[in-house]
From TrEMBL:
Keyword Membrane belongs to the record: no
Keyword Transferase listed: yes
Broad enzyme group: transferase
NCBIfam families: arg_catab_AOST
Protein name: Arginine N-succinyltransferase
GO MF, one annotated term: arginine N-succinyltransferase activity
Swiss-Prot/TrEMBL keywords: Acyltransferase, Arginine metabolism, Transferase
């Protein structure tokens, strides 16, 4: 059975393996053992409530309980932009009119902004290729929202997500080469690494301070603006299904889109209910979906997809589900 659980320092080898598999442009999973070890230490502190909610970073692992193999990872940041600015480009329309010539032009432009301060962020969603079918991605993604819904006081009223931008068949970013590299003048890999390995001062030092008119930009870079990586299309669809919408913000390095949603309007959060668990046989029709169930709380959090029957006073699930989640009959369960 696949179960989502809190990550800790013992998961470093599995997390590093996933980081190498994730490939270029997956900024939140750097191929750096020391950085990832710090991430896991912070995750353990976050789940133990040893850091402030704004500075918490919760890392979740998708584990196959039968094999013990870690099949995926996802994360939630308590808040972004507090210790350093969280820069994005906003795609804006600049209108210009001349009465002397009787002409009007609407120019599309990129403007550097810092608008996401204080928002909580879901991200770092990555699965091994063999697990990208059969609902594993949905379980891992929705487990984040179940954790948020069970601990609303720890998260901001707005939840955001940044998606990896478009890379071509040569695994190169047209947006980086056509726009961002002209200001940072670094290899993409170096800039990508510095996002997580430094305080980000280089962005403040080098990022453009004036609007970038898109009429002056290389067409390939222009077409990549707000375009999602081929491996991120499914992630975007799942976010939109939960109620996230495009914000008009894009990543300053690869042009990937930022989507946002009100915390309490996320579908998994909005539809969740808490009931006492009960063990029993649950018949599932061929066209019936599995239910997301989760153990509330923080350090005790677990989530899985399972057959379930909702009654007036209990949530009936198979005995194996209770065992995988580490709970007993009568313990509370979230179902969505």
């Amino acid at each position: 059975m696949l179960v989502v659980r809190p990550a800790g320092p013992a998961d470093i080898d599995a997390l590093l393996d996933l980081a190498f598999l994730s490939g270029k442009g997956f900024t939140s999973l750097p191929e750096d053992r020391a950085v990832l070890a710090e991430r896991l230490a912070l995750s353990a502190q976050s789940f133990a409530r040893e850091v402030s909610p704004q500075h918490a970073w919760y890392t979740l692992m998708l584990e196959d309980t039968e094999t013990g193999v870690i099949e995926g990872v996802a994360g939630i940041k308590g808040a972004v932009g507090l210790d350093r600015p969280h820069f994005s480009f906003r795609v804006m329309t600049l209108a210009q009119y001349s009465s002397a010539t009787g002409t009007r032009f609407d120019h599309q432009a990129l403007v550097l902004v810092n608008e996401c301060t204080g928002s909580s962020e879901v991200g770092s969603l990555f699965l091994r290729p063999r697990k990208r079918q059969g609902g594993a991605g949905s379980l891992l993604a929705r487990a984040r929202y179940a954790l948020i819904g069970a601990n609303r006081d720890l998260f901001a009223a707005t939840i955001m997500a940044e998606l990896r931008g478009w890379f071509d068949e040569r695994d190169e970013s047209p947006f980086w080469h056509g726009i961002a590299a002209k200001f940072f003048r670094l290899p993409f890999e170096d800039a990508d690494r510095m996002i997580t390995a430094t305080d980000g001062q280089f962005i403040l030092d080098l990022a453009p301070r004036h609007p970038i008119y898109l009429e002056l930009v290389d067409p390939a870079a222009r077409e990549a603006i707000a375009k999602v990586h081929r491996h991120g299309a499914r992630a975007l669809a799942m976010l939109e299904d939960e109620g996230f919408t495009r914000s008009g913000l894009i990543d300053i390095f690869d042009g990937g889109p930022t989507v946002t949603a009100p915390r309490d309007q996320i579908r998994t959060v909005r539809n969740a209910q808490t009931l006492p668990a009960a063990a029993g046989v649950v018949e599932v029709a061929a066209d019936e979906r599995l239910h997301l169930v989760a153990v509330p709380g923080l350090a005790t959090f677990r989530a899985t997809l399972t057959p379930a029957r909702i009654t007036d006073d209990a949530l009936v699930v198979p005995e194996a589900t209770l065992a995988a989640l580490g709970i007993r009959p009568g313990d509370p369960l979230i179902v969505s």
